[in-house]
């Protein structure tokens, strides 16, 4: 039975806000988990002004981990965060049975919300089928708010999210919104405005955060908030105070940073930068390849050339403002 009073308490008035870091999963050089690093990572992110954590998503290599490893990573982040910020655990899996197991575990350890991609080997081709999949998955955590993770570039399921939200509203009692990782601002806006702004739709494309914020985004989940949350905080502060040109300049810094990192395998490069910043999260797990030493050195020099290590800290304004 669903404890409806507890569910309503957890879902009522608790829309996400601010920057939510899609966390990395620390690993040893042999690819084993290195969860001793998690508390230090959490402290870094909270001190950087991050307002929440998204665990075992694409950034956290959730799909490359075993079910037991995913449970261990989720528990480590929930424990280290200790209620100071919401922790959302990504539980999507090609096997809905495994996803249900992960969802149930996330609820047991006290995660603030769960989120899930759809199965992606056999593609989900309709909003009706997606609703059925997410209904079954979310039912395993009946007292935990649920966010569908829309990332068509990886799942291959490019389903209209307005249609999905309309269908799933009644079918999935714990549905509160989306992690929207696509570039269609018009669809994102339609989702935000659906049913008198009922749904919590969270933006997921870091290099377009300015446009999403102008469209109405209140929260964003992203990888680069691990490295340079201050860039985005300065951007949103500038926009809120009417300094549009300054906000654009901060977004330009983000774009320059992401384009520079994008010249290398992205997530391995991100992990290498975290190590440069003093947080050794180790390599990625296959099939993601780690950077060679030559690539790491080149990446460091490329970041120096754009001033990353200077302007990724807490600065009052872009250097060219």
TrEMBL record:
Cell compartment(s), UniProt: Cytoplasm
Highest taxon of the lineage: Bacteria
GO CC annotation, single: cytoplasm
Molecular function terms from GO: lyase activity
Annotated coiled-coil segments of the chain: none
InterPro entries: Aldolase_TIM, DapA-like, Schiff_base-form_aldolases_CS
Homology family: Belongs to the DapA family.
Name of the protein in question: N-acetylneuraminate lyase
């Amino acid at each position: 039975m669903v404890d409806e009073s507890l569910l309503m308490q957890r879902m009522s008035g608790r829309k996400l806000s601010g920057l939510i870091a899609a966390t990395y999963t620390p690993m040893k050089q042999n690819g084993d988990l290195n969860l001793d690093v998690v508390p230090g990572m959490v402290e870094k992110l909270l001190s950087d002004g991050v307002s929440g954590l998204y665990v075992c998503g694409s950034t956290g290599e959730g799909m490359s981990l075993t079910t037991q490893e995913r449970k261990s990573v989720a528990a480590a982040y929930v424990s280290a965060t200790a209620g100071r910020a919401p922790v959302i655990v990504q539980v999507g899996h090609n096997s809905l049975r495994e996803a249900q197991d992960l969802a149930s575990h996330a609820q047991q350890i006290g995660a603030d919300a769960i989120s899930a991609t759809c199965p992606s080997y056999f593609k989900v081709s309709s909003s009706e089928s997606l609703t059925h999949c997410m209904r079954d998955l979310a039912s395993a955590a009946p007292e935990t708010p649920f966010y569908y993770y829309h990332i068509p570039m990886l799942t291959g399921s490019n389903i209209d999210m307005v249609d999905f939200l309309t269908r799933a509203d009644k079918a999935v009692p714990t549905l509160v919104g989306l992690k929207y990782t696509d570039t269609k601002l018009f669809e994102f806006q339609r989702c935000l405005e659906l049913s008198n702004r009922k749904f919590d739709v969270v933006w997921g494309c870091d290099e377009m955060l300015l446009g999403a914020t102008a469209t109405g985004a209140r929260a964003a989940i992203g990888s680069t908030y691990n490295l340079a949350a201050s860039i985005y905080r300065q951007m949103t502060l500038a926009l809120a105070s009417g300094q549009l040109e300054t906000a654009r300049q901060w977004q330009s810094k983000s774009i320059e940073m992401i384009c520079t990192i994008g010249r290398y395998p992205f997530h391995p490069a991100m992990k290498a930068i975290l190590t440069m910043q003093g947080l050794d999260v180790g390599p990625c797990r296959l099939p993601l390849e780690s950077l060679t030493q030559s690539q790491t050195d080149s990446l460091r020099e490329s970041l120096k050339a754009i001033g990353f290590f200077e302007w990724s800290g807490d600065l009052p304004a872009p250097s060219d403002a």
